[in-house]
Amino acid sequence: MKKIILLPFLALITVTVSAQMMSNILVSDEYSPEEPSITMNPKNPLMLMAGANLRSYYFSDDGGMSWTRGELVSNQNGVYGDPCLITDTAGNFYYFHLANPSNGNWLDRIVCQRYDNTTNTWNDGSYMGLNGDKDQDKAWAVVDSATNTIYVTWTQFDQYGSNDTAKHSDIMFSKSSDMGDSWSPALRINEVRGDCIDSDNTVEGAVPAVGPDGEIYVAWAGPAGIVFDRSLDGGNTWLDHDIFVSDQPGGWDYNVPGIYRCNGLPVTCCDLSRSQYRGTIYVNWTDQRNGTGDTDVWLAKSTDGGNSWSNPIRVNDDAPGRQQFFSWMTVDGANGDIYIVFYDRRNYIDNHTDVCIARSTDGGETFQNFIVNLDPFNPVSQVFFGDYTNITAYDGFVHAIWTRADITSLSVWVTNIDFFVGTVENDEPIPAKIYPNPAKDIVNFEFSLKSSSKVSAKLIDMYGKTVALLFSGKSYGKGSHKEVFDTGSLNLAPGIYYLSARFNNTFYKNKLVIE
Hints:
Elements: E1 22-28, E2 37-41, E3 44-52, E4 56-60, E5 68-71, E6 84-87, E7 93-98, E8 110-116, E9 121-122, E10 126-128, E11 135-143, E12 150-157, E13 169-176, E14 187-188, E15 204-210, E16 216-222, E17 225-231, E18 243-246, E19 253-254, E20 262-263, E21 267-270, E22 281-287, E23 296-302, E24 313-314, E25 324-331, E26 338-344, E27 354-360, E28 368-371, E29 378-379, E30 390-394, E31 397-407, E32 409-418, H1 419-422, E33 432-435, E34 442-449, E35 453-460, E36 466-476, E37 479-486, E38 495-503, E39 506-514
C-alpha cells in the first residue's frame, strides 16, 4: 500500500492488567510516525528495535522502558516506509522497507538493511524483487531459527492503481541464506491473481511464518477470500492450488469512521514452542461480516499443516455493535501463548479509540481481552493513520507497538506487559531460597524440582520494572540446583528488589535486599 482530548478511562472489561505488570511508553512523536513495527532479541529480551514511517528506527536496551531514535539511510536504495523489523538467531536486527532509489524507479524493489551491534549502525542494504518498473509493496519477513534463513513475501503490482484488466497483482517470495547480503530471484507463489486497484480484489497481506520442521506458511487476502500456501522445501516449490481459509465479508478494504483508510489484512503465525499446540498454524484478520458498524477480530487455525481450517473464532469479547480493527498477532515461542493487538471502540459511541491486547493460553479457543492504553485518543480521517500495528512476545515479555492520533497529532507508543510478574504467585510454591539476604555481592538462588522443568528468573525493582534478566527458558532436570549471580556485574544499586522465577507454569517471588 502506498503511503499517504482526554476522556475518563472506562474499564468495561472483566480482565485488568496490574500497574506492576504493564507500562505505556512514548516511543516518539517526531515526524508524525505511523505504521510501527517492533522486534525483540530472544537471546536478550530486554533488547528491542522498532521502526515507523517513513524512515525512523528506535532502540531500547531496557525492555522498552526508554527509547532512542535514529534515521535510516540507504544511499543506493532510498527509504520509503512500510517498515518490518525482525531479529535473526544471532541477535542481528533487520529493517525491511520500500524503496526510493537514486538510480531506478520509486518502489521498484524491497530493501533490507542489517544492524551492526558492534558499531550501532545500519549497512546500506540489499534488495530483492527488482522487475523493471513494477511496484513492489507491503513486504514482511521471518527467520527460520534452525538455519537462520530469512524468508520474505510481498505484493507486486504490474502498475499500481491501474484498472486495466491486463494488469495484475501477485504474491512474491524471496529468501536469503547469507544474513541479507543477497537474495534469491523473486518467485510468484499465488494461484489466483489480483487486480492493481489496491482494494478487495488485489492480493495483499502476505506475512510468512516458519513451521517446526522448516515449513514456510503464508496466507493473504484477495478475490478468492483469505487463502493459504506453503512450501516444504525452503521456498523452492509451492502448492499448485491455494487452500481456502475463510471468506472475508465486506472485503479487506473497508471503512471505519475517523480512519483515513482501513484494512483487515491477515497475519500468519505458527507455534514453535514445546507446548501441546506446537505446529498449529494461526491466521488472524478483521472484517465486517457482522455489519459496517461492527468490525471484529477473527482467528482461524489449522492443526494439519494448513490442509483444513477451523471456523473463524471471534477474538474480541465485547457485545456486538462496536468497532475493532487493525489487528496484529504473535505467538510466544517459549510457551505457545497467542497475543493479538488491535484498536478497540467497545467503550464509546463515537470515534474515541482504545488499544486492546487479546491473550489465548489454550491454542486460540478462547481469549482474554485487556484494554492497555491509559486514556483514549480521537483520530480524524483527514490524517493518515497508517495501515498496521505490531506486537512481539517471548517467555511472557510482551511488547505491542501502536499509533496514537490526537486529532492531527501522531505519536508511537509501546505497551510493555510482563505476564511473568503479573501471574498470581504463591508465597513459595516449590522449595526455593535466596541467600545471603541482605547481600552485598554474591547471591545464591537454590531450588528443587520434582520433575524436569524450564526455568526463567529475573530481578525486578519496587516499581515492577525488570532490572536484570538472569536466565530465560533454561532446562533443568529433577533434583536440586543452584544458580549464582554477582550484583556488582549487574550494576545494581543498593535497595530492595524481588527475585521472580517461573518453573514451567509455577511461580516464585521473594524479596532481596542489596546493601
